[in-house]
């Protein structure tokens, strides 16, 4: 069943091009109907979004905030389910409540969905990988990702297919709100449909990432940096590394370095940097200089034309192409591979990391 792979996690990382293509398979036009019969009516009446999730699904939500505000112009809040369900919040009936979950059974996310509904927020949408799950049954609207069964405890293909669905949701809401002209829509959809191919090209970087994993395997701490929409990707990279390799990893928006984490930087700590070629590149480069000045070792996933080259203390893996708004889907892939190979070298049980369960159905 594993074919050429050693673990389900590795297999699932390599299934991502297929999983994303399947998630897009039934998509023709960008229309509310993709999210359920009542979606047209609901989307018309929505003026903000509240995303609720846990873990990796929470990072998918955080990523999509940048799309929803940047492309669709809709205010978007993102909450950790276990926090949201227990705090006093101010409900707004015009909010679209979006729960995101691979399993659709995560206790806190399901309870948060019911909590939102009890507060009078009945416009609910679940993005989920399991069509028959509790969350899908409890929601008015739904989008089913087609990642296929995910066995590895560390979520990989579920994450990238969630991002695929969330980008579609963004386009759909942008269109409903009259903020998407047909030319842009066609261009975004062209980019989205090309993602499976683009992910395949990123997967071909595996041997280079393995060489880095050899060095990471002997570390006890790592720092991950990103900016803008790639900050949640840095968070996801750090989560992957900590949960399967048991290396302590923290992610920061690079602009926060000076406000504390720079104190951690010395020769011994690897600093993984997500470096897309976007409008924040120059800012990111100056953050990298701060690390360099403290003799930190930088491990940079850099797009083409960023001018970033390997030097003594900067190691660069070049990403195959710049991918504009969909770049997070590509940049998370080498971080998954880095965590996987580091954990494997350390001899860990990659598919069943200690203390963790695949589906957290109790609080
Ligand atoms: C991390 C991971 C977990 C899950 C979280 C939510 O790799 O798998 O953080 O993302 O437990 O699970 P779902 O998406 O099933 O609600």
TrEMBL record:
Whole-protein coverage range: 246 to 608 of 608
Domain SIS stretches: 39-179, 212-353
Record-level Gene Ontology MF annotations: glutamine-fructose-6-phosphate transaminase (isomerizing) activity
Enzyme Commission no: 2.6.1.16
Enzymatic class: transferase
Keyword Transferase (UniProt): yes
Organism per entry: Parasutterella secunda
Compartments where found: Cytoplasm
Keywords: Aminotransferase, Cytoplasm, Glutamine amidotransferase, Repeat, Transferase
Active site: 358 (for fru-6p isomerization activity)
Catalytic activity: D-fructose 6-phosphate + L-glutamine = D-glucosamine 6-phosphate + L-glutamate
The name this protein goes by in its record: Glutamine--fructose-6-phosphate aminotransferase [isomerizing]
Record's function text: Catalyzes the first step in hexosamine metabolism, converting fructose-6P into glucosamine-6P using glutamine as a nitrogen source.
Subunit annotation: Homodimer.
Record bears the keyword Repeat: yes
Source organism superkingdom: Bacteria
């Amino acid at each position: 069943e594993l074919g050429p792979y050693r673990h389900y996690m590795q297999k699932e990382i390599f299934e991502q091009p297929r999983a994303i293509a399947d998630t897009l398979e039934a998509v023709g036009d960008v229309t509310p109907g993709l999210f359920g019969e009542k979606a047209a009516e609901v989307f018309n009446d929505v003026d903000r979004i509240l995303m609720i999730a846990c873990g990796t699904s929470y990072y998918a939500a955080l990523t999509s905030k940048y799309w929803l505000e940047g492309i669709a112009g809709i205010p978007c809040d993102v909450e950790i389910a276990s926090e949201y369900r227990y705090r006093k919040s101010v409900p707004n009936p015009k909010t679209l409540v979006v729960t995101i979950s691979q399993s659709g059974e995560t206790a806190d996310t399901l309870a948060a969905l019911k909590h939102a509904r009890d507060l009078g927020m009945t416009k609910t949408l679940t993005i989920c990988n399991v069509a028959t799950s509790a969350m899908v049954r409890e929601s008015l609207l739904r989008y089913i990702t087609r990642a296929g069964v995910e066995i590895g405890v560390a979520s990989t293909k579920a994450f990238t297919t969630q991002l695929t669905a969330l980008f579609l949701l963004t386009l759909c809401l942008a269109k409903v709100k009259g903020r998407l002209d047909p030319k842009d829509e066609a261009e975004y959809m062209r980019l989205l449909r090309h993602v499976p191919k683009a992910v395949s090209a990123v997967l071909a970087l595996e041997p280079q990432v393995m060489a880095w994993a050899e060095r990471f395997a002997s570390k006890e701490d790592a720092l991950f940096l990103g900016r803008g929409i790639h900050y949640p990707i840095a968070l996801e990279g750090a989560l992957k590394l900590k949960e399967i390799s048991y290396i302590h990893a923290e992610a920061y928006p690079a602009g926060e370095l000076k406000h504390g984490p720079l104190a951690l930087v010395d020769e011994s700590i690897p600093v993984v940097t997500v470096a897309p070629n976007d409008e924040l590149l120059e800012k990111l480069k100056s953050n990298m200089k701060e690390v360099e000045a403290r003799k930190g070792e930088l491990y940079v996933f850099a797009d083409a034309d960023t001018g970033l080259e390997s030097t003594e203390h900067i190691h660069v893996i070049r990403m195959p192409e710049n991918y504009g708004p969909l770049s997070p889907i590509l940049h998370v892939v080498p971080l998954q591979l880095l965590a996987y190979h580091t954990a494997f070298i350390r001899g860990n049980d990659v598919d069943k990391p200690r203390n963790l369960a695949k589906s957290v159905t109790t609080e």
